[in-house]
Amino acid sequence: MAKVTAILEVIRTMNSLKRKRAISDYAIYGAVAMMRYTEAFFTQDLDILVVPRKELGPLVLLTPVFDEFAGLGYKWKGGHILVEGFPVQFMSADELEREAVANARRVKIGGLRTKVLSPEYLVALSARAGRAKDKAKIALLMTQARVDKDKLSDILNRHGLRERYEEVGRWLDI
């Protein structure tokens, strides 16, 4: 229950930051996003991609986000902010991630509007990362989610990830 409460608090706060124009946009990614398309599994944190308003550098870009959560009384622990005891990691979006946020699916979670990355972008980002856990994520998505293979192919080709994906594909036999 603490995870659900934390996720809802993060969505509320991120929506507020967007309304205030402190950020341009955001979307949920990582394991929580994957669970929108696959069977539920354990995750240790919530990952949020943030599209900042200004190109000032990675720390300055996320300052409004960090300031907002600190103002609500939430503390840092390692690379996360603990929201209702649940670790949340905020990442400033790069070019591929900005595109992923722009094309994210609009959903409601607990009655709150938010965005969740599509399975095609989750696969592409996992292929780019290429760690063992990312390969497992790709396997889950390719077997359990409705992945538009033409859309995925386009994303992989445009972002130079075709070879990385094929390496993972050989490992997974997909």
Describe the structure.
The protein is of the alpha+beta class and 174 residues long. It folds into two domains: 2-117, Beta Polymerase, domain 2, CATH 3.30.460; 120-172, no CATH class. The protein has eight helices and seven strands; from the N terminus they run H-E-H-E-H-E-E-E-H-E-E-H-H-H-H. The protein has helices at 2-19, 30-34, 58-71, 95-102, 119-129, 132-144, 149-158, 162-172, and strands at residues 23-29, 46-52, 75-77, 80-83, 86-92, 105-109, 112-116. It has a five-stranded mixed β-sheet with strand order 1-2-5-4-3. The chain has a two-stranded antiparallel sheet with strand order 6-7. Helix 5 crosses helix 7. The protein is globular and about 45 Å long. The protein starts with a helix and ends with a helix.
Count of β-strands? 7
Strand content: 15-25%
* Weakly predicted, low-confidence segments: none
Distance between the termini: 36 Å
Helix content: 40-55%
Gross CATH architecture of the largest domain: 2-Layer Sandwich
Strand order of the largest sheet: 1-2-5-4-3
SSE string, helix = H, strand = E?
HEHEHEEEHEEHHHH
Under CATH at level 1, the class of the largest domain stands as Alpha Beta
The main pleated sheet reads as: 5 strands, mixed
Mean pLDDT: 90
Count of individual domains? 2
Number of helices: 8
Radius of gyration: 16 Å
CATH domain fold name of the largest domain: Beta Polymerase, domain 2
Judged by helices, strands and strand pairing, the structural class is alpha+beta
Q: Name the shape in a single word.
A: globular
